[in-house]
Design a protein that fits this description.
By secondary structure, this protein is mainly α. The protein has one domain: Protein of unknown function DUF3227 (Non-ribosomal Peptide Synthetase Peptidyl Carrier Protein, Chain A, Orthogonal Bundle), CATH 1.10.1200.200. It is about 70% helix and about 0% strand. The longest helix has about 35 residues. It is globular, with a radius of gyration of 14 Å. The mean pLDDT is about 90.
Length: about 110
């Protein structure tokens, strides 16, 4: 079995995997055009650029919630499932956890 350091490497690698998971998931659900609209909305209303999502997952989550309403948690779970799969981990929902809580827990678990 590979060590977590081999799976992830450095924080930059984790951030890259998170951004890939976000982008892939949004494009799978909303296609290219819809994804562009989502990024534009979050950038305009929350001043968050795509590359900052990994640093500020709570802002990204707030932007999704404002734009998508009750659909936002569903999209976040799809993103998390994708990210965990990339890390060769199993995603398990935890009561009371927000999107950013999962990201923070992963960072601690993986030491980045």
């Amino acid at each position: 079995m590979m060590s977590e350091n081999v799976i992830v490497g450095r924080q930059e690698k984790f951030d890259e995997l998170l951004l890939d998971a976000v982008d892939e998931t949004l494009k799978r659900v909303f296609r290219e055009e819809g994804t562009t609209v989502i990024y534009g909305f979050i950038n305009k209303h929350f001043r968050l650029k795509l590359e900052e999502i990994a640093e500020k997952p709570e802002v990204f989550s707030a932007g999704l919630e404002r734009l998508l309403g009750s659909a936002a948690p569903v999209i976040e779970k799809l993103i998390l499932n994708n990210l965990y799969r990339k890390l060769h981990l199993k995603f398990a929902e935890k009561k009371g956890y927000e999107f950013s809580d999962y990201i923070e827990k992963l960072r601690r678990r993986l030491g980045c």
